[in-house]
Amino acid sequence: MKLKNFIGLLVLSLVLTGCASAKSIGNIAMEGDYAPAEMPAMSAPMEQQFAEEYGRELAYDEAVTGNGIQTNGIERIVIRNADLSIVVDEPLEAMNTIGRMAERMGGYIVSSYSWKTSNYKGIEIPEANISIRVPATLLNQALDEIKALLNDKELDLLSENVSGQDVTKEYTDLNSRLKNLEDAEAQLKLILDEAYKTEDVLNVFSQLTYYREQIEVTKGQIKYYEESAALSSISVRIQAHEAVNPITVAGWKPSVTVSKALQSLVNALQAIVDGAIWLILLIIPILIIILLPFYLLFLLVRALVRRSKRRKLEKNKISE
After folding, report:
1. What is the spatial distance between Cα 195 and Cα 189, in angstroms, rounded to a whole number?
2. Where are the alpha helices (DSSP H) in 27-104?
């Protein structure tokens, strides 16, 4: 029973220390449940009881935590990804070229698929999507090679988004948590070697199983960050020119006319709204400042005139 009590306090102190850093970790793609499993309720005796029963004193270094770890000199861990939408002559050929480029750079194809759509004439037009991973150091080169597939980079590059996520803090906290978990596991192994009661052995073994599971989960999250930072993801949507070119009927492009009409409508509404904003925020306040004194003067004169008329009426009534 003494060993059980001591193990409870030991586990509680290690959990509080090891989980302090985990509170700051969020938005992890492989996020696991950091909440400790329910531990048996144990009371207050400390290391002295364990020393009395097993002749060993336990020392635990809590110096390294998520809040106290030294971050100076740590290499930044940044996950960089890119999304593109492009227009080419042959979408399937472009998809295969992008896939071969990824393999040549030491990356790989995550997914790729193609399908067909029909234009207004009923002609089937191929489209494709491909997602690849390339070494992060070659991300810019990969983007340049993809853009080299375009006939006109100004018109055929419909969209491009390159994002970066700095996960240095999360990565550092995970390593700190891993160290605390491994320290707890090592000390529980020492306790297991000294335990000679069946109940104590089962309790310690249960705690060891829990910590081994948490260690594996944390290692998996660390590996995810390392791989995500080492290999950048690029997703490309590939369309054919026929799918984005405007509809043409005997030289007339109704879609272009519709676009111009809508643009004119937007411009007109924008001019009206801009005028209303100028009127409310600039012209009306200036008019109020200029006209307010005249209005107050008008009210004063009107009040004096009415008062004068009222006095004359009272005098006339008195004289009658």
Report:
1. 10
2. 47-54, 91-104
As given in the structure block, the two tokens for residue 97 are: 């070229």
Exposure letters 98-136 (e unless 16+ CB within 10 A, then b): bbebbeebebeeeebeeeeeeeeeeeebbbbbbbbbbeb
Q: For the ranges 23-27, 235-239, 273-277, 295-299, which has the lowest average pLDDT?
A: 23-27
| Residue 25 main-chain phi, psi, to 5 deg | -90, 120
According to DSSP H, which parts of the chain are helical? 2-20, 47-54, 91-104, 139-147, 153-156, 168-194, 198-230, 241-244, 254-278, 284-319
pTM: 0.51
Cα dihedral 270/274/280/281 (nearest 10): 140
CA-to-CA dists, residue 262 to 72, 243, 245, 268, angstroms:
56, 21, 18, 10
| Closest among 232, 231, 234, 237 to 94, alpha carbons compared | 237
CA distance readout (Å), 59 to 17, 37, 50, 109: 15, 24, 12, 50
Decide: 108 and 114 in contact? Cβ < 8 Å: no
Note the pLDDT of residue 110. Answer: 94
Q: Which helix (H) or strand (E) holds 46?
A: none
What confidence tens digit (pLDDT) does each residue in 123-161 have? 788 899 999 999 999 999 999 999 999 988 888 899 999
Q: Six-digit token pair at 40? A: 């048996």
User: Position of tokens 């008008």?
Assistant: 298
Say how far apart CA 161 and CA 140 lie, in whole Å: 12
Instruction: Specify the DSSP element, H or E, that contains 162.
Output: strand 157-166
3-state secondary structure of 249: strand
Residues 6+ apart with CB under 8 A from 4: 40, 42, 199, 200, 203
Alpha-carbon span 109 to 39, nearest angstrom: 45
